Each structure stands twice: as structure tokens, then as C-alpha cells.
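[#protein-structures] MJ: dropping 7TM GPCR serpentine receptor class x (Srx) domain-containing protein here for a structure pass
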Amino acid sequence: LKLKAALQGIFFFLELITYFILSPYARNKWEHFFLTTVSWCLVHGMDGFVLEFEKRYHGLFILHTLSSIDRSRQSNLTVLVFLRVIPSLNNSFGSLTLSQAASDFVHQAIFVFYFVPCLYLHDERLYALSENVGFVLIITYEICGLSHVCIAINRFVAVNAPFVYSRLFRYADFLKYVVFVITVALLDFFSILRVHSINKRHSNTGAQDAASAMRQRRERNLVFQTALQGIFFTSELITFFMLSPHARNKWEMFLLATMSWCLVHAMDGFIVLCCNRDFRQQIRKSI
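AK: finished. C-alpha cells for 7TM GPCR serpentine receptor class x (Srx) domain-containing protein:
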């Protein structure tokens, strides 16, 4: 565990130094390429390699005939495939490692299946997608970085407070989403309050026109949308984290866990469509 933490920390720290500090001093495009792209790929690839060698199942999936980036992608894929069958990783640390490996795999897959063809094919259609692909790349990089932070916190608590570790992380996911719901509710509440005060000020000055009426209607729709989404999301948290452990059979477990999880995400889009007049008009035009 100490070796893994040290190696991953060293690789991640070196990547930050080369990418943000050394790359601006590159004298040509090749130095810039090695100090940015190669170091960026290397740190994500080494995440998977470090975990493989630390858990001693690296012989399952490594193909030495492929390029280094593709081997890095495969190492993270190996982590994704075999993570749940490793007994020592059937815990919160394993879940965080899964998040890290998934983001690393997507990051490396983008370089293998998009960046490399761009270099060799010089296809304008591929170049046209660069902004969108780059956006996804940045998101995966941020997820990987946050996963490292969470893993470090997880490791720190496990070492310094071993007796409260299982109790703390048992409800960590539930508390995290509760914080999300409260944050969203507070932000929406203050946004609605601000819009309402502006509309009230306009109505007091006699500036009630068609535009003001439309703003008030949108305000009501926003309140309705916020309330419905909050209700569905809170209901999903209750059914998934509180009620599902008391399920008496597999069908109750399916309804309280999988079904509620899918339903809340499906209802998000349905609520947005119902509360947004522009969406409905666009759908009617398309039909």
C-alpha cells in the first residue's frame, strides 16, 4: 500500500511539473510534445501499471507487442475487469480505484483511437472534433485527479482512524448525495428568490408588460421544475440507501435499487421537457 501510494504520488507530481512548469520552456515541438502529451499519457498509464504490479496479476492482460500508450490503456482495462474479483479491493478503496481506473482508461482510449489517427491520417473530419474530444479529455483528467484526492483521504482515515473507518465510509456515498441535494436546493432557492424580488420591483414600478409576464411564467416553471427534481432525487436516495437493505427478495431489491436509480435519471429529462415551453414547441415543430 505504501509503495503504491508513493509511486502514484511521484508520477502524478512529476506530470504536473513537466506539464505546467517545464513545457513553457520547450525549444521545439518535440520537446513540447514529450513534456506535455507524453507525460500526460504516461501518468494515466502508470496508474494502471502500478496497481497491477502491486496486486501481482499483471500477467493477465499485458501485450508487449503493442505501443506504450495502448499497453497503458490495457493495464487500466485490466484493473476495471478484475477489480471486483480481488478480495482486498471489495471496499470503498476499491470503488475509488475503480473510478480512477475508468477515467484513466477513457483518457488513454481517446489518445489511442483519436489522437494517434489524427497524427497519421491528417483527416479534417477528425480535426473538426478536436474541441469536443478535448473537452471530454479534460473532464476525465479532472475525474482522475479528484479520484486521487479521495483515495488519499480514504487511505489517511484508514490509517489514522481504523475503528471509525468502516462506519464513516459506509454512509459516505449517502451523505455525499445528501450534500448535493441540499446544495442544489439552496442555490435554486436563492436564485428563485432573487428573480422574484426583481419581478416584484418591476411590478411596483408599473412596468408590467408581456416580457415581465413571460419572466413570471418562467419563474413559476423554474420553481415547479426544481421541486419535482428535488423530490425525485431525494426519493431515490431514500429507496436506494435506506429501503433497499431491507428488501425481502430479489424483486424488491430490483425495484428499490435499479429501478429507482434509472427512474430518477429518466424523470430528469421528462421534467425539463414538461417545464420548458421552448422544448415543447421545438418537439411539435419536429413532429
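MJ: nice. The radius of gyration is 25 Å.
AK: one more thing. The chain has two domains: 2-170, 172-286.
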